[in-house]
Amino acid sequence: MQIRSYLELMKLRIGFLIALSAMAGYAAVATKVDGTKLAILFVAMLLGSSGSAVFNQFYDRDLDRLMPRTAQRPLAAGTLDAGRALWFAGALLLTGCVIAVLAFNWVVAIHLFLGAFVYGIVYTVWLKRLHWTNIIIGGAAGSFAVLAGAAVVDSTQWLLPSLMAITLFLWTPSHFWSLAILIKDDYAKAGVPMLPVVMGDAVCAKWIFANTIALVISALLPNVFGQLGILYAVVSTAFGARFLWLNWKLVRDPSRELAKRNFLFSMQYLAGVFLAVVIDKHVSLSMFGL
Fold it and tell me: Strand locations in 42-196, DSSP E?
């Protein structure tokens, strides 16, 4: 039971997404993919992300008690000691950083730490309870994962990883605001000023659409700067067009059903775009007759 509670604190699904983003950053600049390095990178990023997730639940345990969706989380429900959870958070983050330093270099570890700091301190402590723009700035947390992955290979190859980091930064509000519409009542009960709580679902849908326009444009910047080829451009454009269409439908009908469809597709969008980066860099177009 205790092990299961600690695993729940780690928010492993988010950790997997962060770790996969770091792996995409690695593959974007590597001339040859090393499976061992990828595995170690995955573990280090997962641990670092999990550390910040545990801290998030430690700090927000008072809010979690007010929301039905989170009331049964271990710290909110009191099934785990808060002090032990805080030590656990620090141990996870420290272990991830130590692995990054020993297996790779300080630059990887610094990016890992900065991602955890932005999520744990900038977003959770400073912004979440203050203003609806919290998730915009907090979105930088995931961007550091891409930069960490690229730094495993060469920290001086910054252009493509930075463009990918911008895409991930802009992806976060479109992804999270769709979810926020679904769980708006919970945030309202806890007094958390998320965008749909403060401005309503209709305004939130318009912000999602505007943000996704910027997101889709940003995803094409690697082509503008000559970093990727036609395969990436086609895939990125196709996924972007689908995402914008779903956003537009949400603008016209800001319902929970369409918010859920946008939320679920946002994850497919990011996976598709980052997978296209990997394929474009490591798969010859001749295989496709192009």
Answer: none
pLDDT digits (tens, 9 = 90+) for 176-199: 999 999 999 999 999 999 999 999
Q: Rounded to an integer, what distance in angstroms lies between the CA atom of residue 136 and that of residue 132?
A: 9
Q: Is residue 166 packed enough to be buried (19+ CB in 10 Å), middle (13-18) or exposed (0-12)?
A: middle
- Predicted TM-score of the model (pTM): 0.92
Q: Is the domain 158-285 a CATH 1.10.3210 member?
A: no
pLDDT tens digits for 125-135? 999 999 999 99
Please report which confidence band the pLDDT of residue 282 belongs to, taking 50, 70 and 90 as the band edges.
confident
> How many distinct helices (H) and strands (E) make up the chain?
16, 0
The C-alpha atoms of residue 104 and residue 253 are separated, in whole angstroms, by 48
Give the Cβ contact number of residue 64 at 10 Å: 21
Residues of CATH 1.20.120 domain(s) within the chain?
158-285
Closest to 56 in 3D by CA, of 133, 112, 138, 1: 138
The CATH class given to the 1-156 domain equals mainly alpha
Whose CA is closest to 45, among 26, 19, 67, 69?
19
